[in-house]
Design goal:
The complex is a heterodimer of chains A (103) and B (158). Chain A has a four-stranded antiparallel beta sheet with strand order 4-3-6-7, with no helix packed on it. Chain A has a three-stranded antiparallel beta sheet with strand order 1-2-5, with no helix packed on it. Chain A has a single domain, classed as Immunoglobulin-like (Sandwich). Chain A has no helices and seven strands. With 158 residues, chain B is an alpha+beta fold. Chain B folds into two domains: 30 residues; 114 residues, SoxY domain (Immunoglobulin-like), CATH 2.60.40. Helix content of chain B is 23%, strand content 41%. Chain B has three helices and nine strands, in the order H-H-H-E-E-E-E-E-E-E-E-E. In chain B, strand 5 and strand 6 form a beta hairpin. Chain B is globular, with a radius of gyration of 23 Å. Classes of the chains: A mainly beta (103), B alpha+beta (158). Chains A and B meet through strand 3, strand 4 and strand 5 of A and strand 6 and strand 7 of B. Strand 4 of chain A pairs antiparallel with strand 6 of chain B.
């Protein structure tokens, strides 16, 4: 199952929010070497990052984002204990997400 | 007394129906820039210009020195090329990463809300050596920076 991990760290006086999702990110262009059939596309289309209930970043992705996407954004003025919420959805309608606090 | 009631009642219904029409036409829905649906035409676009038009409605971009791209000059594995973009431009609304040499150039686009600064990093796939273009939307205008990344092994095929 797709695992979502969130990490926060200070970065130049701001707070960097890193999100890692275990996801195959299939392009739909690859071929199964044994069956010679195309592997259907399966990729995350949208990932949103909320800080204290407000969306700070909404990432739209295509198939060219690497397998197990790692994306990062940075916010200013985040305090220790602030709530980070991540939710994503892929082209097959699967959804996932995670919660974390700024540490 | 009766007629006054009738008057207010009529006024109320007219106003109410106008409101309903306005709401159904989408005039009253708050602007939902951040929660827009996945922009399929932008990701399907075969050229950078088309992708930008589908994303932002224009492909007019100006080169900017206020965008920094942190990415390898040479990537050994095209399946995982890290890239980090930071911009000193004020009020960055969106950052898009495009790979000129990929069949569909648009890799990712992030819409930033209040509180976020002009920074975005991700890992992308590159089929071959090509220019990577970063477009930053700030103050309603598009700014661009570019860097060539050499790819030893492409990361799009099998």
């Amino acid at each position: 199952m797709a695992l979502t991990k969130i990490k926060t760290r200070p970065k130049d006086g701001n707070t960097e929010i890193l999100v890692l999702v275990n996801h195959p990110m299939e392009t739909g262009q690859r071929e199964d070497k044994k069956t010679k059939k195309k592997i259907p596309a399966h990729f995350i289309q949208n990932l949103s990052i909320d800080l204290n209930g407000k969306t700070v970043a909404n990432v739209d992705m295509g198939v060219a984002v690497s397998k197990d996407p790692l994306v990062a954004v940075a916010v200013k003025g985040a305090k220790k204990g602030d709530k980070v919420k991540v939710s994503w959805s892929d082209n097959k309608g699967e959804k996932g997400g995670a919660d974390a606090v700024v540490g | 007394m009766n007629s006054i009631n009738r008057r207010t009642f009529l006024k109320g219904t007219v106003a109410g129906s106008v409101l309903a029409v306005a709401a159904s036409a989408g005039l009253l829905t708050p602007t939902r820039v951040l929660a827009a649906a996945w922009p399929a035409p932008a990701f399907d676009a075969k050229s950078i210009d088309d992708a930008l038009k589908a994303l932002y409605g224009t492909s007019a971009v100006a080169d900017s020195k206020d965008i920094k791209i942190k990415a390898p000059i040479q990537a050994e594995n095209g399946a995982v090329v890290p890239i980090a973009v930071s911009s000193g431009l004020a009020n960055v609304e969106a950052i898009a990463i495009l790979v000129a040499g990929n069949n569909q150039p648009l890799v990712s686009n992030v819409n930033l809300g209040a509180g976020a600064i002009g920074y975005f990093s991700a890992r992308m796939k590159m089929g071959k050596t090509s220019d990577v273009k970063v477009v930053v939307k700030s103050g309603g205008k598009l700014h661009m920076a570019s860097q060539q990344i050499k790819v030893t092994v492409g990361g799009c095929g099998g």
